[in-house]
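Design job #97: recover the sequence.
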């Protein structure tokens, strides 16, 4: 009787009982792929709970490795999820084996959107069904609402054997000096943590390549907003949107005509489940205007940032060589600089100014005039002398009225 009482009081059980105690140094290693898929699945199901199965392997008595997860169809509420569909699970595992996924099911996961990580009574029953197949199965709970960048609200649980509590045995023991135990929340303690189930440490093991890939996943630089799209692609996109606007306009005009011929009762059900051309017309038009404004702004910024190339003239002054000067710009600059705005290309000699209608009139020093330039490209300061009419040595002083 005394021996039995000592055992009930929590004393050390002999031999075989010590080996059956759960070691809390066990760690669940979740891969980056599995964590991202769980968070995306949980965020997509808000405000309902979602669930899925975890694939991996039991490496040893202290390590559970999770490499991938897949979603499961279920009827969930805001508090719990129903049991797993065994038919879907079997078919999914068969297809995964065909694609080269030899891992087995190591547990399941589900989401608690906004109310922390703990197991409800339905979750405990689901976990019991998993532990009947494998006593080391793990239940992972993730909160996609409270999770933020750099901190994921997640926890892993496993049920406590009620027989050990009846015999007065401790459900777990501390035998490792690695890591630390997380302080449980009050909400989890209220819902049976350390009474019906216990928490397992979670770690994320990433390779150097995975870490580098994740760091560059959403990396933004300030120059992305200044990158210009290909003009042909942008023109095709604008053309497609304009054609869509034409089709939507025709549909809206047709709809307005129909509304005048239908009764009020017919109008209630006439356009149910159909596209509203007015809303789409507004959205497409707004997007078209915004994209073109941004595109023009990028072109202007790119033009100002690149700047015109400079080259030295014979008199040592700087002159623009990469962009054409309009008549208005030339005339404005002539008014600003006066006689200095008229130069000779090869000698740099200053010649008297001329009225604006003769700004681009070529002439020579002897007074003989040439034909006007054959194209606007000849107005560039970087044109070759071969493009002009040959005049010989006596007329080498070919002058254009240009602005500095």
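Job complete. Output follows.
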């Amino acid at each position: 009787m005394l021996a039995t009482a000592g055992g009930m009081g929590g004393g050390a059980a002999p031999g075989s009982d010590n080996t059956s105690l759960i070691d809390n140094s066990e760690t669940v290693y979740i891969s980056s792929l599995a964590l991202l898929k769980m968070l995306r699945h949980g965020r997509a199901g808000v405000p309902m709970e979602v669930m899925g199965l975890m694939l991996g392997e039991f490496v040893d008595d202290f390590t559970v490795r999770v490499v991938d997860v897949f979603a499961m169809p279920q009827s969930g509420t805001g508090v719990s999820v129903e049991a797993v569909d065994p038919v879907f699970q079997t078919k999914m595992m068969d297809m995964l084996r065909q694609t080269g996924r030899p891992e087995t099911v190591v547990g399941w996961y589900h989401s608690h959107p906004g109310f922390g990580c703990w197991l409800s009574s339905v979750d405990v029953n689901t976990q019991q069904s998993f532990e009947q197949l494998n006593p080391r199965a793990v239940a992972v709970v993730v909160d996609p609402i409270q999770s933020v960048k750099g901190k994921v609200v997640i926890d892993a649980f496993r049920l406590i054997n009620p027989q050990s509590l009846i015999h007065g045995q401790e459900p777990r023991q501390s035998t490792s000096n690695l890591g630390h135990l997380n302080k449980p929340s009050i909400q989890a303690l209220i819902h049976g943590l350390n009474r019906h189930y216990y928490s397992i440490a979670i770690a994320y093991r990433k390779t150097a390549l995975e870490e580098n890939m994740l760091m560059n996943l959403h990396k933004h630089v300030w120059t992305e907003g200044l990158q210009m799209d290909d003009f042909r692609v942008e023109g095709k996109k604008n053309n497609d949107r304009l054609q869509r606007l034409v089709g939507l306009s025709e549909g809206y005009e047709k709809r307005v005509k129909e509304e005048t011929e239908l009764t009020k009762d017919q109008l209630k059900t006439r356009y149910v489940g159909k596209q509203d051309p007015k809303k789409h017309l507004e959205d497409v038009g707004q997007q078209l205007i915004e994209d073109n404004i941004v595109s023009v702004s990028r072109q202007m910024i790119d033009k100002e940032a690149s700047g015109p190339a400079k080259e030295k003239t014979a008199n040592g002054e700087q002159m623009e060589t990469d962009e054409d000067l309009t008549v208005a710009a030339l005339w404005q600059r002539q008014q600003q600089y006066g006689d200095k705005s008229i130069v000779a290309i090869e000698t740099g000699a200053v010649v008297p100014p001329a009225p604006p209608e003769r700004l681009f009139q070529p002439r020579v020093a002897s007074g003989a005039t040439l034909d006007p330039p054959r194209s606007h490209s000849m107005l560039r300061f970087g044109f070759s002398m071969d493009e002009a009419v040959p005049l010989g040595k006596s007329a080498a002083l070919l002058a254009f009225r240009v602005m500095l």
